[in-house]
Each structure stands twice: as structure tokens, then as C-alpha cells.
Amino acid sequence: MFVDIAKIFIKSGDGGNGCVSFRREKYIALGGPDGGDGGKGGNVILKADRNLTTLLDFKYCRKYEAENGADGRGAKCFGKHGEDLYIKVPMGTVIKDAESNKIMTDLSHDGDTYIVAKGGRGGRGNYHFATPTRQAPSFAEPGMPGEERTISLELKLLADVGLLGFPNVGKSTLLSMVSKAKPKIANYHFTTLKPNLGVVKVEGVPSFVMADIPGIIEGASEGIGLGLKFLRHIERTRLLIHVIDISGSEGRTPIEDFKRINEELKNYSIKLWDRPQIIAANKNDLLYDEEVFENFKKELNKMGYDKVFKISAATRQGVDDLIKEAARILSTIPVKDLEIDEEEKYVEEEKKFTYEIKVEGNVYSIEGSFVDRLLQSVNVYDPDSLRYFHKVLKDKGIIDELKKLGIQDEDIVRLNNFEFEFLL
What residues does the OCT domain cover (predicted)? Predict the structure, then answer.
């Protein structure tokens, strides 16, 4: 089964908690705090693997979590770091943030890696908080939580040449003639239900990779048919071969076919529409009036397309000349990575612990991630811990902000389930 789009949930490991511990050994007085730091949580890392060709694995497993860091221990023993989780994806996979649909990275080369979620930092042990006036701190930092997000994986095949055209114009036949690919071939529309890749090898020219996608029909840019669904697979191509049924066996005129497909291509992506095109006038073996091809070629020349080949994929007539010209043009076009516009790029937001102050009468409620982390790190029932708690509130500017809001003596300050009276 060919699967080229998947959505998965990933979570990096949480950092381990710092340890509260004191050194107590015989004959060693006043050993002091020796709680170790927690270990760092494992990262979630995506890695491109040339041995994978589809995103099928992600159809059955949609949740991936890295290992948490271990908690610190006494004697300044640091907790073990969580193991990084490597997730293998096919080469050519574009990673997007599912919420914003912004592109995070493009893994187009074998072995490319990207840290999609960083592990949480381990919390500091209580020995870090010892000072000349606070010699026995009974608190430590909790570990930072890991990152979690839903990401989209979008496979865009790596091909040099893409075959373009209506259904049943002979794209699959052409691919089967110039490569060892074995696409399904039959005389009805949408025989090709998934993209096919083939390595083209013709004597006297360098080999290259060709991609055949399901045929495009009019209205494809609005979601009609199958072609638009797979157009992403020719976004990386450097050259397009536009296959046209010159015989008109489907009851359409060749020039109208050409204009309709290019219009759908333009509606989908201007970049793809601007890509160099070679026109392959196929099914020449069914053409009984040579003037049809000559008129077709003249019309295309007027439109600025001078690479027009009369071929028959079924009999291989003219195919070698077409492939040699494709190879020649490819040699003049440098290989580029997928172009990503600035507005399409995902920008990592700086993670900050935030808070919000709400006033109801004489009660000042402080809420947010800053409050959650502060309360986790201190023991509000211990005098030393409580002094550290008030110092953090002052250093972070919360006390000054409460004064600006008009707080008075004996007003209540509430942080989650903990509250105290304010004294100016």
C-alpha cells in the first residue's frame, strides 16, 4: 500500500526532578545538601532512510514518546538522561506542524536528521540553592516538561523528471518502456492510482529518475479527480514531460488538452507551472493525418514551447530522442532542494513561563505555567523554602506588579490552592 500523508503525535521526555538530600556520615559533621540534578529527557528525532519508500508504518502507529530523564539522587548523583527516540522516514519527507500547517523541515537526503521535539531539562538538586544564609535548603527544582505536538508527514518523491497529462494518454506505457518500472497499464481512465518511480537508462545518456503520477483532469485544482492529490510528487522535479494524446482517441483536441492541464498546473503552483516542459505527442501510431501534428507543433511554438516530440510509447518510436533531450536539459539544470517560502516556514516560539493576575475584590489570583513550576519547586511549609518563594516573586517583578494593581495590607494573594496575606 502506498501512503504519502500521515499525522502523528510526538512527545519528548520530561526532565528528571532534582533531589533534596543531605550528606549524613559518621564523623562528618554538617555534611550539607548533596541532592543531585535530574537527567535530561530524551529528544524525538526524525531521520531520513533511503530504505523506506512509504509512510505506511505511521498508519498503524500514531503516537511516539521519548524516554523521561531519571530523578537525581543523594551524594550529588545525577539522574540518567532519557534515551533519544529516532523515527525513520523516507527520503523526501516534508515535516509540518499540524496546528499551523507551517513547514518545519525537509528531509531529502539519506541520513538527514531533525530534532522535532527537545527533551525537558533536568531539575537542579538542592545543593545548588545553598547560600551562606540558607545552608540547608529543603527544596529542589522539578524537571522541565518535554515538548509535545502533532506533526504532519508529507512524502514528496525524489524524481528528476515528472510525467504530466490527462488520464489514459500513455504516461505509464512510456515509463515502462524506458525503465524497469512495472506500472499497471490498461485502456481506461485512472489505471494509475498511485505514483510510480522508474530509473531511466538509455544508452549514451546519464540515468535519471522519472515519476509518473495519476492523470490530471479539468477541475483538478478544485479537488476533482486523483491527479491533484499526487501533484506534490513532481514538486521536486527539475523537468516536466507533458504527454499529449495526439491521435485524439478520447474525443479531445491535443491543443485544448495542453492548455487545460497547464491551467490546472498554474492554479496549483506557479513554481511548477514555470518548470521547463518537453511536449511528447504520443500515440503517433494511431494518427492518420500528419497535418494534425504539424498544426499542433505550430500552435505550441507560438506559445513559446519549442521542444515537441512525436512519439509512440507503445512501439517506442521517437522515445529515445525524447529521453536524450530530457537528459541534455537536465544536465543544464542544477539539483536544488525543495524551495520553501518564508511565510511557509515554521518558527519555533521561545518557551517562557507566563503568569496572569486576576483581581476579584481583595483577592489577587496569580495563574499560569510560572505559578505551577514555582509551587512544584518549593515546600511552602518550610521557612527556608518560603523565604526563597518570596524572593522569586520579588525578583520576577510580581510583587511590584501587585502594588501597581493597588494591593493593600492583608489582601489575599492566591496561587492555585495556596494563598497568603500580603504585607507591604
Answer: 345-424
